[in-house]
Amino acid sequence: MGVKFLEVTSEDAGQRVDNFLMRHYRNVPKTLIYRIIRKGEVRVNKGRVKQNTRLVDGDVVRVPPIKVPEKTESTVPAGQLQRIEDSILYEDKDLMVINKPSGVAVHGGSGIQWGLIEVVRALRPLAKRLELVHRLDRETSGCILLAKKASVLKALHEQIRENKMTKEYLALLTHHWPKGLEKIDLPLLKNTLKSGERVVKVSKEGKPSVSYFRVLERFDDCDLAAVRLKTGRTHQIRVHALSQGCPLVGDDKYGDKTLNKAYKKLGMKRLALHAQYLGFEHPVTQAWLKVEAPLHDDFELTLTNLRGEKA
To answer: Region 292-300: what's the mean pLDDT?
Structure first.
């Protein structure tokens, strides 16, 4: 395939250039998309761009020759299709909200044959513009929002940028959260190790990051907290919790391995973080939508066992 020129339509206007390319080259690894942008091989109106550059109606995107892998019939197993179908919390012609199971990556790639977006596209083949509005870590469960139209995606991204979307998480914290402490305002810096692993730490050089913690239930040795985000940085809740000496239960990256082992016996064999609530204005109807995601069985079992211990 030679050099290609793609014209941006009004439907695509406002979209990031990396997301625009991923939609046009769905069979190409994300790492390759990011590499050609970083090297300056992707041009918009003859100029270099960054991956987060937003496109405007009428822009011309120059794409270098890309070898597109042959499409393999890597069909999603029927059991997984049904699992995600059963996890749909809300759906209309414009968008959908899914209660993502823990362990399901949002995207395929890097050894992952398929992610949530690939499963949903297989479930809804007529929704040609289906895209993730935001992301969740692979081990995090709960509400995740998808748009079926570029105009809806653009409007929802606008709400996120303007802090008009409400997200609340449930987090099980090792140790007790400091009494009276609610707001954590600590900048976070993202680093990528040589191994490719992403690690985030509190740093003056980091991006502004604000979380609000509210203890819902105290157990003998841990707390269940509701967490609302003002910003949405990578690993924000996990690192803000760690900053107060309360890493999340089941956190393999920032947590306590010995404690994680103990909580496995209570039922929590993964990161104890669940996106339980999502509130936003519907871009088409202007109605305020509130969607709640029930806890999955493993989280419920762990809380039941902890309540038994407390009693």
So the answer is: 97
